[in-house]
Specification:
This protein has helices spanning 3-14, 51-84, 91-103, 115-124, 130-141, 147-152, 186-199, 204-216, 222-225, 237-249, 251-254; strands at 159-160, 166-167, 179-181. The chain is mainly alpha-helical and 257 residues long. A three-stranded antiparallel beta sheet has the order 1-3-2. Keywords: Signal.
Length: 257
């Protein structure tokens, strides 16, 4: 795997950090096998009168971005697994590990990557099932009809804290300074969501559940990983229960395409 291929995954993610949602990273020197899907032409989800058609349009719009990012993650994960059992690394390998460390907020030990570091990196560099990603997008954005989705391409309710970084919530409490992040397009919002779930300490339980499923050879499902989202909403367990129910109820939509 060439350096340009493995660094691409990190570079694509880095351009969508939620702290600076509209920033971009210069990746002109990187040549992916295929370009990311264009998610700039957003359907008018509110115009759909038939719920079934709206849900199908919503999934058709967002799922290519989810699939693309999961593929990038699997490429990076494969390289990490290979390097975890390598004793002598090339300079390209060192660059790759540095990118992973920066991206997933997992500093490398002074002596270099060791077994403990690789174990945690492999917990973070892993897929998020499309049914979970799309369910949360649907729930947080009202199937693409919310103000934040329409005006800021934010389908996941993600916050930012720099003045002007997004949209000010009309119901923001006194003394609060957060905004709802605005993104250039839906693809950046999806990347930011993946970063948030895969590196934020609040979702360590989700990553532990995912790692346990991998270790036991069981499928990684959205319904199982949803148990690790207690901190995603102030509502806690009721929010998790609703996400799991939505996954089951809308299964036919998540599997389309």
């Amino acid at each position: 795997m060439k350096l340009s291929r493995v660094v691409l995954a990190s570079a694509l993610f880095l351009s969508a950090c939620s702290d600076a949602p509209q920033s971009t990273t210069n990746v002109s020197q990187l040549q992916p096998a295929s370009p990311p899907p264009s998610l700039e032409q957003v359907p008018d989800f509110a115009s759909y009168k038939i719920v079934d058609e709206k849900k199908k349009a919503f999934v058709s719009f967002l799922k290519p971005g989810v699939t693309y990012i999961n593929d990038l993650i699997l490429n990076a994960r494969t390289r990490l697994k290979t390097l975890s059992s390598t004793t002598a690394m090339a300079s390209d390998d060192e660059v790759f590990l540095a990118k992973v460390a920066e991206l997933f907020k997992l500093p490398l030990p002074e002596a270099g990557a060791d077994a403990k570091w690789f174990n945690e990196a492999l917990k973070r560099v892993d897929i998020i099932p499309a049914d979970l990603v799309l369910t949360q997008a649907a729930k947080e954005s009202g199937w693409g009809t919310s103000r934040f989705a329409r005006e800021g391409n934010n389908y996941f309710g993600q916050w930012c804290y720099t003045p002007g970084c997004g949209l000010v919530p009309s119901a923001r409490g006194k003394g609060q300074t957060h905004e709802v992040a605005a993104f250039k397009d839906a693809f950046q919002a999806i990347r930011a969501y993946f970063l948030n779930v895969n590196r934020n300490a609040a979702y360590a339980d989700l990553r532990n559940i995912r790692a346990a499923l991998r270790k036991s050879g069981q499928p990684i499902t959205g319904e199982a990983l949803a148990k690790g989202l207690l901190s995603y909403s102030e509502r806690g367990q009721p929010y998790v229960d609703e996400v799991q129910s939505m996954i089951r109820f809308n299964e036919k939509y998540w599997s389309q395409g």
